[in-house]
Amino acid sequence: MSNRPEELIKKIYEEQGKINDVFLTACGGSLVDLYPGYYFINSESETMHSHWLTAREMTVSPSKFLKRGALVILCSHGGNTKETVEAARLAKERGAAIITMTHNPESICAQEDMNSVVYSWEDDTNERERPQGIVIRVLNELMKMQEPGYTKYEAVLDGLEKADGIVRAAVKKVQNRTWVFAEKYFDEPFLYIIGSGASYSQAYGFSICSLQEMQWMDCCYLHSGEYFHGPFECTDEDHLYILLMGTGKARVMDERALTFLKKYAKKYEVIDAVELGIDAIDESVNEYFCPMVFYAMTVAYRTGLQDKRRHPLDMRRYMGVVEY
Ligand SMILES: O=P(O)(O)OC[C@H]1O[C@](O)(CO)[C@@H](O)[C@@H]1O
């Protein structure tokens, strides 16, 4: 059973009353998509605290704030991931409200008591109907209901209308660059992916899902601010960096990383959301939409690598193959 996100959060708000804590939890790629919502609440809310954590961590070490007055947003693409299902059950037991997103209408996460939003995941699915868009839709409504001083509601709605067009244009724009990147770097022994703000999630996802899981490439993700607190000592002309440059207040950290890379590195790829058109969305909120653009970039770059490296994106040796 699927719910409309806006109606679901209204129903929850009527039942629960004031929300004090928003938890966002899942595993892997689904967890990545929840981070912008965490960042949004952390930046915008005057009445709520947000928490972003792995589903397993939520159950092995539950927060004292996981109780009535908490909203837990979960995502599981396949809908049956054990850790995520257990996190949803624990949240309900503790009296928290849950919203569960899944692509699989037959899954545990789509059952009636899961308050599910079943999303489509086709090439032409609009960004506002994908998990990152659904989370922002839910939280934008929640902010409007709970915080009379919230002024960004309309700007976010406008962003949700524009995001899909921006993402599609950006994918066309970088197509050639992804091929050139793959030609140059297909055999690279190690990569660093750097980002910050809401887009830090996409540095994480680019690394753990697109390159480690799907290409078996050694790499790690870095926060642009943290780059200067240790990792920059590895910088030289041999190491390869991909820098995701977002917008908003966090951008200064990405700019600082770029300045350093220009001076001391030789191999770096800059993916800049501004150059890719994100500023068509109001600047007060466009940072929350950069991760949609960056996710599409990870797909474009990993596809370029797949083709050049002849390593299918779907090939696994452990995940879903052996016991773990
Ligand atoms: O979104 P689901 O179905 O819970 O699956 C999570 C799994 O899928 C991935 O996101 C992608 O394969 C993994 O990172 C993770 O183990």
TrEMBL record:
SUPFAM superfamilies: SIS domain (SSF53697). Residues 8-166 form the SIS domain. This is SIS domain-containing protein. The lineage of its organism: Bacteria, Bacillati, Bacillota, Clostridia, Lachnospirales. Transmembrane segments: none annotated. It holds the Pfam family SIS. Coiled coil: none annotated.
